[in-house]
């Protein structure tokens, strides 16, 4: 054996050198368990809309050993005051771009543009981290709220909106005309002000207020990835909503009711810091 090694030493070294990259690749692929980490960036965005309670996280996903395919991203949020837990699923993956406009005789003006697309599956590579800017919803709450909002929408369309547009059509009002459109919007707003006082509207408004998930206090956040190597908990964080934060969201239930009726609406948002995790 010793004579064989001595005789063929050069050939053995050449053989190992030639196959080393493949050996390392196979070892990483089949024997090393890759570690996935999440590096948070910016703030956690908290809101409430027709989707129910929403939470958006920003950061970067990294993997150390080899590529990993991610089927979906999920969050578990624990509200500390009552220990209630909710599971949030990724709904939209958001991409923010910065554009420069060039008005005449003026410096460039940067404008932010936010593009949302469905939260598709994706791959993380060691040499190519994944930037995450994803909006999550709690499906069990969303389904319940959407059902009530759709009842509200149907009532609005049948008793207020559709009759108004039928009247516009009967009177040959051209809604493409700016002045006519303003009159139509004013009529719709007046009808909505009347409709929101109805018994069904007040009942749904009360239900939405009661189902408001985000109240002031401490929360525990866990991030999970369903991947090609199984379900992984990759990160834990804590965040706090102050009374000031919840005040920014207090009119979102009313905005959701306007939104479902295709009326102009605006939502409030709270931006909170990623804190060190606390036990839930």
Structural account:
This protein has 280 residues and is an alpha+beta fold. It has helices spanning 2-7, 9-30, 139-170, 178-195, 199-210, 243-249, 252-260, and strands spanning 36-40, 44-49, 52-63, 68-79, 84-101, 109-118, 122-124, 130-137, 217-227, 230-241, 270-272. The protein folds into 2 domains: 36-141 and 213-272, Sandwich (Immunoglobulin-like); 145-206, no CATH class. Strands 1, 2, 3, 4, 5, 6, 7, 8, 9, 10 and 11 form an 11-stranded antiparallel beta sheet that branches. A hairpin with a 4-residue loop joins strand 4 (68-79) and strand 5 (84-101). Helix 3 crosses helix 4 (178-195). The longest helix is centred in the middle third of the chain and has 32 residues, at 139-170. The mean pLDDT is 82.
* Annotation, overall tally of beta strands: 11
Compute the CA-based radius of gyration: 27 Å
Strand content: 35-45%
> What is the averaged pLDDT score?
82
Number of domains: 2
According to CATH, what is the topology of the largest domain? Answer: Immunoglobulin-like
Shape: elongated
Which stretches are poorly predicted, pLDDT < 50 over at least 5 residues? none
- Cα-to-Cα separation, first versus last residue: 62 Å
Largest sheet data = 11 strands, antiparallel
Helix/sheet category: alpha+beta
Number of helices: 7
Highest-level CATH class of the largest domain: Mainly Beta
Helix content: 25-40%
N-to-C series of helices and strands:
HHEEEEEEEEHHHEEHHE
CATH architecture heading of the largest domain: Sandwich
